[in-house]
Amino acid sequence: MRTEATAGADQEGRVQRPWRALSVCLVAAFMTLLDVSIVNVALPSIKQGMHASEAELQWILSGYALTFGLVLVPAGRLGDARSRRAVFMTGLALFTAASAAAGIAPAMTWLVLARLVQGVAGGILNPQVAGLIQQLFRGGERGRAFGALGAVIGIATAAGPLLGGGIIALAGPAQGWRWVFYVNIPVGVAALFLAWRLLPPPARGEKQGLDPPGVLLLGAGVVCVLLPLVQEQQWHGNRKWLLLLAGALLIAAFAWWERRARAPMVDLGLFRLRSYALGTAIALLYFAGFTAIFFIFTLYLQNGLGYSALEAGLAITPFAVGSGVAAAVGGRIVARYGRPLVAAGLVVVTVGLAAAWLAVELEPGRGVGVATALPLLFAGCGSGLVIAPNQTITLSQVDFAQGGSAAGVLQTGQRVGTAMGIAATGSVFFSALASTHGDWPGAFRRGLVVVLALVVLALAAALADLAAGRRARSAALAQREAQEHGQAREGC
Q: Which of 207, 352, 458, 489 shows the smallest number of beta carbons within 10 Å?
């Protein structure tokens, strides 16, 4: 008997077991997203083993984020237009090879270049995952699939420091960072084989155009927006912010071109869908907040309190546990509750982070990891009710043929949000640290205020969506009542 999920898959290739196909996608997504956060705790090991400068260490982080965000939308479009399986496997193979190159790096220049390639590969691969979910699943099954993806996003982001700390503790501080990259190799090779066996083949029929001018305009715009944000601490002076203006102009030019292109890379009509437009805004604002937590908390624990990489990872683990469990639950119930579930999740995150702020106020010393465990667990539960349900709702009205490019735009917003949040929160954190001559708890609390403000803005966007939905339903009800009243009068 064919299920809805199988029937959906038949449009581009018959997949009898879509959940097996999804498991391959989730493993690859976990690996690429993990590398966003796992390297944070490996930086001291890299500095010790490679005698790296602060600028080189920053490029290991920011270079990955920059190239990751650069290719998301073009890669999503390429998967939609040609073959999601082929593009997915290309990204996965490139990521695995770049991980091997990073692990054997003899010099910092080699390592930075390998990280840039890793970012490109991650950006190629990730939009295909959401596109494949759109293709393979329908109805409630799609919500559960996005719930699984949300759990992967939350766990990968928060568990990176723990896994990285464990690997470095086992392999030693001098060379432990190499194994942070080596672990990707067997996983990537196995996932490549399974992807070939389980992912659907491309559709037969006319191929869509790829819009090279749109690729160039959007790529240049994204670089101009991301570069000053990811280099905020290392690039001194205010001239870097002129790139934001240049980026805005290039993105405006991209929007102008897309309205006239014969085969646009992104259908801008998507933003006329309230669910997509506000969902993208919520994702940008929320990722600006929640990813910055790990940046400043890891610095506070390791540099301020002398935690080891493993201890810092353990301190963040409650958030990962809460996020993973709640994301799986959220994916199952999002079809029933819709956007109110996202708003409720954002309220829970806000309360949890406020409690973490209070915990640091009461216990600023080495006991802070224990003091913040329960608040971070609570905040993680809220996060799980935000990421997966929001992605499900945002893409709910998008045709599966546009799934990759629509997901690419959504994920680009997440990457821009991440860069914005880390830049803003990091600026407040480091300024407070300098002005107070090393008051790490105080600097962390000030940074947490910025994070809370960003989460509250995301909540405001979710509430705006709820209000707009309520008005739309009221207008539809009034129109239906007017029609029924008119028909009754005609009957008389």
A: 489
Tokens 């073009």 locate to 74
Q: How far apart are CA 371 and CA 130, in angstroms?
A: 37
**Helix intervals (H) in 82-199:** 84-103, 108-136, 139-171, 176-182, 184-198
User: Exposed (0-12), middle (13-18) or buried (19+): which is 134, by Cβ within 10 Å?
Assistant: buried
- Beta carbons of 372 and 471 less than 8 angstroms apart: no
CB contact set of 487 (below 8 Å; sequence gap of 6+): none
For residues 245-274, one letter each, b for 16 or more C-beta atoms within 10 angstroms of the residue's C-beta and e for the rest, the string is eebeebbebbbebbeebeebbbeeebeebe
Helix intervals (H) in 363-402: 368-371, 373-394
Helix (H, G, I), strand (E, B) or coil at 39: helix
DSSP string, 395-443: TTTS-GGGHHHHHHHHHHHHHHHHHHHHHHHHHHHHHHHHHTTS-HHHH
pLDDT band for 2, please (50, 70, 90 cuts): very low
In sign, the C-alpha dihedral spanning 218, 271, 229, 56 is negative
CA 341/CA 357 separation, integer angstroms: 24
**Which residues contact residue 121 at a Cβ distance below 8 angstroms, ignoring those fewer than 6 apart?**
32, 91, 92, 94, 95, 98
* Cα gap 442→128, rounded to integer Å: 42
How confident is the model at residue 7, as a pLDDT? 38
Of 278, 314, 337, 444, whose CA–CA distance to 270 is shortest?
278
Would you give the DSSP letter of residue 231?
A: T
* Torsion from C-alpha of 177, 179, 185, 190, nearest 10 degrees: -130
- In order of start, what are the domains of the chain with their CATH numbers? 14-201+265-491 (1.20.1250.20)
Number of C-beta neighbours around residue 207 at 10 A: 11
Instruction: Read off the pLDDT band of 203 (50, 70, 90).
Output: low
End-to-end CA distance of the chain: give it in Å, rounded: 52
- Alpha carbon 160 to chain centroid distance? 14
pLDDT given at position 299 = 84
pTM for the predicted model, two decimal places: 0.79
CA atoms within 13 A of residue 336's CA, in its CB half-sphere: 6
What pLDDT shows up at residue 206? 46
